[in-house]
Structure of NADPH:quinone reductase-like Zn-dependent oxidoreductase:
Amino acid sequence: MFAITAARIDKTNPLSGLEAGERPDPAPPEGWTTVTVKAAALNHHDLWSLRGVGLSPDRLPMVLGCDAAGVDEDGNEVVVHAVIGDPDAGGGDETRDPRRSLLSEVHPGTLAEKVAVPRRNLVPKPPELSFEEAACLPTAWLTAYRMLFTRAALGPGSTVLVQGAGGGVASALIRLASATGHRVYATSRDAAKRDRALRLGAYAALPTGERLPEKVDAVFESVGEATWAHSVRSLRPGGSIIVCGATSGEAPPAELTRTFFLQLSVIGSTMGTRDELRRLTEFCARTGVRPEIDRVLPLERAAEGFAAMEQGELFGKVVFRVGS
Ligand SMILES: NC(=O)c1ccc[n+]([C@@H]2O[C@H](COP(=O)([O-])OP(=O)(O)OC[C@H]3O[C@@H](n4cnc5c(N)ncnc54)[C@H](OP(=O)(O)O)[C@@H]3O)[C@@H](O)[C@H]2O)c1
């Protein structure tokens, strides 16, 4: 089958390890099944893998990709849940299984014509969603869904800040939080991306680091070092930061004094459960909320999407069309 792989790890020039070519078809073990991929989406995770974060050299070459929508062995349209874990080992939540992994970390990923996954990792694709839209949901959108609805536990009509508006996770947060009635501030380094954040439903969009006109109940962080101090300073007393990533670095000042004095909470969040993914797909089908897609490319041109993500050019998701 045709696939996009990490062939080498390079921390400074990650795209030099990217290869496109033929790989063996998956050989699913007992309890697993093979999905014929129709669309797959790119995540920053794929760039981290090429830098050797979460992917060790002894596992190379590795098929990249966490997100896919396609057709299962019985002809059903499905969305693939990327978390390979045992809910029983995580107290009923596979994201808390200490031995969990994401597709492309231990098992071959989704940037391929076929991907093998445990049978329980298939979620029905609602007919209202295209394969391209459904392929955006399993990582960035699921992470945003869990941050907003499971981890933040916000009351209706809250005021929130989303840092780095252009990102896959961030654009999902803007869309989901505004669609559910929160007042959403967003930041971005780029004026055109701030305009697009407004069109997604943000109440206001500001340059990265600019002071907000009011304090917020919660900040959604995936940027890390470049925005952390601003996130802490933007919270009202008792507010929360929900953090899922640190794209710009993970060593910001901790801001301990402000954290204890204002009784702030810092809440980590990672991916989501299969059940959360199923509810997210149904939410999108019922509400008309759809992922913001920056561009759709044939899988053969995956390197263009990786380069645009590395350059920070994107607003929303890059989707790869697979097969005819
Ligand atoms: N824990 C989990 O389960 C989980 C799941 C998904 C993602 N993540 C992590 O979350 C992060 C975002 O993922 P993604 O797929 O959404 O990435 P992405 O689409 O590449 O978005 C990254 C965004 O971060 C902002 N950014 C990057 N560098 C910045 C800087 N120096 N200053 C200010 N803003 C900066 C950019 O916003 P602007 O260009 O608009 O300024 C950019 O759009 C990644 O680190 C990823 O690994 C974690």
